[in-house]
Amino acid sequence: MSLRPKVLVTKIGLDGHDRGSRIVAAHLRDAGMEVVYTPPWQEIAAVVKLAQEEDVDVIGISSLATDHLIVPRLMHALRDAGLAEVGVIVGGIVPDEDERALLDAGVARVFHPGSSLDDIAAFVRDLAARVRSARFPA
Amino acid sequence: MKRDLPRGDDAAAAARLAAIRAGDRGAVARAITAVENGHADAAALLAALEGDLGRAHVVGITGPPGAGKSTLIAALVGECTRRGRRVAVVAVDPSSPLSGGAVLGDRIRMSEVAAAEGVFVRSVASRGHAGGLASATRGIVDLMDAAGFDPVIVETVGAGQSEVAIAALADTSVVVTPPGLGDDVQAIKAGILEIADVLVVSKGDSPLASATVRDLKDMLRLRARRGAWTVPVVLTAATRGEGVAELLDVAARHAEACGRGRRLAGAVQPPGPHDAAARVATLARQDAFLRHCALELLDAGPGRATLAMTVGAEHLNFNGTCHGGAIFALADSAFGLASNSHGPVAAGIEAHVSYHAAARPGDRLVARAEEVSRNARLATYRIDVTRGDVRVASFGGTVYIAARRHAPREAATPAAGARVPGPSS
Amino acid sequence: MNKPLPDPVPASLDEARVRWAAEYAAQLPQDRETRNRSGIPVKPLYTPLDADPSRYDEALGFPGEPPYTRGIYATMHRGRTWTQRQLIGLGTPRDYNARLLDILDKGATAVSLIPCNSVYRGYDMDEVYPELLGTCGVVVNTADQMDTCLDRVDLATTSCAMNDPLPFTLLAFMLATAKRRGVDWRDISGTSNQSDYISHFVANHMFFRIALPGSRRVLTDHVAWCNAHAPRWNPVSVVGQHMQQAGATPAEAMAFTLSTAIQYAEDCIAAGMSPDAFLPRFTFFFDISISFFEEIAKFRAGRRIWARVTRERFGARDPRSWRFKFHAQTSGVDLTRQQPLNNIARVTAQAMAGIFGGLQSLHTDAYDEVLSCPTQFGARIAVATQNILREEAHLTDVIDPLGGSYYVEALTDGMEERILATMADVEAQGGMYAAVRSGYVQKRIGESARAFQAKVERGEQTIVGVNKYVVDEDASARPALPKPDPSLMRSHLAGFARWKAERSRDDVDRALSALARAAQADGANTFGAVVDAAVAGCTHGEICATLRRELGFGQPLVVV
Ligand SMILES: Nc1nc2c(ncn2[C@@H]2O[C@H](COP(=O)(O)OP(=O)(O)O)[C@@H](O)[C@H]2O)c(=O)[nH]1
Ligand SMILES: [Mg+2]
Questions:
Q1: Which CATH code fits C64-442+451-458?
Q2: Residue of chain C whose alpha carbon sits nearest to that of B68
Q3: Which of B320, B405, C332, C374 is the least buried, fewest Cβ under 10 Å from its Cβ?
Q4: Which residue in C120, C199, C205 has the most chain A C-beta atoms within 10 A of its own C-beta, making it the best mutation to test that interface?
């Protein structure tokens, strides 16, 4: 069975610094993944609808200016839409105490500045495989 | 006798079908994933939905990259929403030939309209398929049709040729041309314009647009009319919402004139290059051996067809190289499709092959069939099988041309089996 | 002063060079190829042979004289050092005012204000998720709140940098405050730091945007209004910083910035303004990366090009129009979360490059900025860094101290050439406005960003603590970061709701419909209507929403 991870790379909240999300999106493509990319400033409800329609395995949220603070709201909204199994990762500037809160809210991992792109890609691939096998048990 | 209670699996399958028919977003999305990735149960699912098909108006939108297709679709979706229609979009983007990955960017242009409740957008990677269309697109369109979306809009990148697939799939094929092609109009004339039911000149707010409309109209005058339908040229400025409602109306008129569900019935058309290509695509779908061998149709036209195959373990002989019979099968299939592309049924009466080089596991073999000569009863073809720049085999063959024409019977074939399988990715 | 080289260069010099080159090659047979971030090859040695001494006057000249390579003022930092401008903003207007007074007390000489991201994005505080309020800047939505922000600050004598994207509501609130305090608008000085809407479309940051044609109109109106009513205010700051942060190389950032300035100048001229009426109040704003010599050369080359463009292309006569005045900020992109105290060393090197590059105003980043918004502790070190460089290290004793360095002069020429080539590319796209609308500039910057990232991933560009010299760190040793006090923010929100309920709805409605009419009418001045709305008690969000409705929302132009 084909496993090309399908990943959504997006930004929610107020900030638009998208250098990081663009580089990550391009790298995941080069690592063989199918990436749905959105511009910044997405509404949480729009991200949930998109994730559902595209049936993505993983959502990557880039946050450089405190927008990670609303990621717990996203996690709730995903659960409410029946998408609890989707893997969510956050990349960007996240202070340590906030990282703990994000992990508690169900985020699979937080990548900080300086993370290697290959590490990110490897993690996303594994996470996607886990999500897929949960969705389509053999 | 007491009837068996439905087993758990059947109940789940029935619930799933009901959810898809009810247009449940999650159920439709999950089913698309199954079709896209060739899951075991996808064929049965599509077969079960066969009776629900043919209601949606399938609009194909194609044209060169940057022509403004996605922006135009966003405007069309907005217009549909205003008219109270539930609309679905399949946006196909090319996969990277190097990594196989893709950035699916069409949706970016649609983010404003995609948020509406009655809109369903799905981005698909072409996964190496020529014709700008992913192999699974047909199944995805079927699912959206069954889920009650109408219209279903399909965006594909047209690089200028091989737009066969979209024409076979869509009820109305819209070719989008950016302004200012000038002399290039001649260049695209032979390609994607041939499949157009409607021509759109996009970016109508740019100064060259009206000149391009004139050029295209001049060009169309030189062409034979396609049956009762005269191909119109519509000028749009999607960023300003201009020409969008008109385009939707024109497309609806085309569906009224030429019908819906072309992909199911294979409407009869007067001959032309577009029809040759579409015919080959249809024949390929109906060919069980092609499917069995996982041969992939890359391109077709009058008197020509190109097929590809990736050498796998099952193709190997005792020497560990590709079996000559497999290569023959590939070349012979291209021969069969090319010789049947014109409409009359053609039957092979003779063929011969020379092998020049070995092929190994993982090699991608491409067989290109060309017509060498053709008269009322006989035609000969030459087929080159290559691996990159290396010629692997040369094949020659002759057909006898029957008086009978092909009557497309695609609806009779189960929907799920009706596609040429793609390379397993 | 340079000692002029004898002409012709003596043969002995060339012989010596050949001898050295042979020796060098013998000792280092496998020399690495070095290129700076802008892609210019860097040689191991520069000598008089790399310079053309006959070009001194034309290429360098003296400080305060065109082409200003050595500085735009005769006295440069010897006369007046740079303005020490720390960007600050946190929490409520009261929090901000306390921090501002502290920083002024510690040696800062001008005011700057960073608003909360919600303000940047054009919203009032009651329109966004409360947890995002005040985390990166001050939550200021009304003239009353601006009055609190600037409490005990003399508006007639203090230069204020407003990080204020169009439609410039913060400036409007400040003008309303001035009016209330009886301060003449003609005495108000400072800069609209985020007026460069083109840069906001190039790099998607957090700024409020209206669609490109509307943005173009509002900026031109702003320049015209300031010309007439606030002549000491700099209405245009062309921002190279966003582009460089988004990944442009230093040469690209300078080129795109100059091309943007050319675009704005042409728009103003098309609106009937004379070049000398607005060019003297054009300012620039750049990022200083840690590529030390490259940054110095970038600034020197930029000055030279601008002097030529203003004189030759626009025919400006007033020398003030020719001067390339810039504020610079040390680059946050170079800072690392790993071993954050290392950032103090990085900021020092960046600041030195800016100083040697001849800046007029400097912001040094706090070392903890990459962890979140800077703490007060971090901000103090950042200010101290500037004081140390100026007064302990004596960097300002000599004007353009690196002028005449064979390397720096050759590199300045090289950067100039790169910058001009990129400007020509933009020109071929139909100018900066067209090149951004089509996505050309975004695409180029995206490519540069990826190329740089690839160098880091391959280890070709060292980043200490990230891809080399990595140490195990105790995450808990990192400083805890301040968040605005939620109870203060709640009462700020409650106060805002009360205030809105109490103001005159009629005045507000009248001002907003006047603003809408101004946006619809071609001859009217939109910024004048924004100022009137601020005075009438309209909020930031109301003003932005009105213009967004009338002129369209500026969708991000995305190119992956
Ligand atoms: N001026 C103008 N630009 C347009 C219009 N439609 C699309 N564009 C621009 O053309 C570029 C490509 O558009 P897109 O829809 O992505 O094209 P696609 O590759 O064919 O899907 C984008 O920069 C659009 O903003 C239009 O009606 N007018
Ligand atoms: Mg597209």
A1: 3.20.20.240
A2: C438
A3: B320
A4: C205
The verdict on the CB of residue B177 being under 6 Å from ligand 1 is no
Torsion of CA A9, A10, A16, A22, to 10 degrees: 10
Q: What is the largest CA-CA distance in chain B?
A: 77
The CA-CA-CA angle for residues B418, B86, B115, to 5°, reads 110
How high is the mean pLDDT of chain B? 82
Ligand nearest to the CA of B71: 1
Which residue carries 């020092």 as its tokens? C348
CB–CB contact C558 B108 (8 Å) = yes
CA distances from residue B157 to B93, B138, B165, C121, C415 in whole angstroms, order as listed: 7, 16, 12, 35, 40
- In this structure, the number of other CB atoms found within 10 A of the CB of residue B58 comes to 29
In a domain, A119, yes or no: yes
Quote the Cα angle for A111-A117-A119, to 5°. Answer: 70
Q: Write the DSSP symbol of residue C125.
A: G
**Is A2 within the bounds of a domain?**
no
Span from the CA of B238 to the centroid of ligand 1 (angstroms):
8
* Residue bearing tokens 């200016």: A65
How many structural domains comprise chain A?
1
CATH number at residue A123: 3.40.50.280
Q: Which residues pair with A91 in a beta bridge?
A: A62, A111
Chain B positions touching A16 (Cβ under 8 A) are: none
Test C558 with B105 for CB contact under 8 angstroms: yes
**Is the CB of residue B266 below 6 angstroms from any atom belonging to ligand 1?**
no
Do C91 and C134 meet the contact criterion of CB atoms below 8 Å apart?
Answer: yes
Taken in order of first residue, the domains within chain B and their CATH numbers are: 1-52 (no CATH), 54-265 (3.40.50.300), 273-405 (3.10.129.10)
Provide the 3-class DSSP secondary structure of residue B403. strand
B418 pLDDT above the threshold of 60: no
Residue A128: CA count within 13 A, CB half-sphere: 24
- Tell me, yes or no, if A41 comes closer than 8 A to chain C by beta carbon: yes
- How many Cβ atoms sit within 10 Å of the Cβ of residue B282? 21
Q: Is residue A47 part of a domain?
A: yes
How confident is the prediction along chain C (560 residues), in pLDDT tens digits per residue? 445 555 556 678 888 889 999 999 999 988 888 999 999 999 999 998 887 777 888 889 899 999 999 999 998 888 887 877 766 667 899 989 988 888 788 777 778 898 998 999 999 999 999 988 988 889 999 999 999 999 999 999 888 989 999 999 999 999 999 999 999 999 999 999 899 999 999 887 777 888 999 999 999 999 999 999 999 999 999 999 999 998 999 999 999 999 999 999 999 999 999 999 999 999 999 999 999 999 999 999 999 999 999 999 999 999 999 999 999 999 988 999 888 899 999 999 999 999 999 999 899 999 988 776 677 788 889 989 999 999 999 999 999 999 999 999 999 999 999 999 999 999 999 999 999 998 899 999 999 998 998 999 898 999 998 888 888 877 666 666 667 788 888 999 999 999 999 999 999 999 999 999 999 998 899 999 999 999 999 999 999 999 999 998 887 766 55
Q: Give the residue, by CA position, lying nearest to ligand 1 atom 26.
A: B203
Q: Quick check: C332 contacting A, CB < 8 Å?
A: no
Complex prediction ipTM? 0.93
* Residue located nearest, by CA, to atom 7 of ligand 1: B68
Determine whether the shortest distance from the Cβ of B161 to ligand 1 is under 6 A.
Answer: no
pLDDT at A10: 95
Range of the domain at A98: 13-54+69-127
Instruction: List chain B residues with CB under 8 Å of A84.
Output: none
Pair C59, C411: CB distance under 8 Å: no
pTM, two decimal places: 0.78
Neighbours of chain A (3+ CB pairs under 8 A): B, C
Amino acid sitting at position C454: A
Identify whether A73 is part of a domain.
yes
**Residue B258 near residue B267, CB atoms below 8 Å:** yes
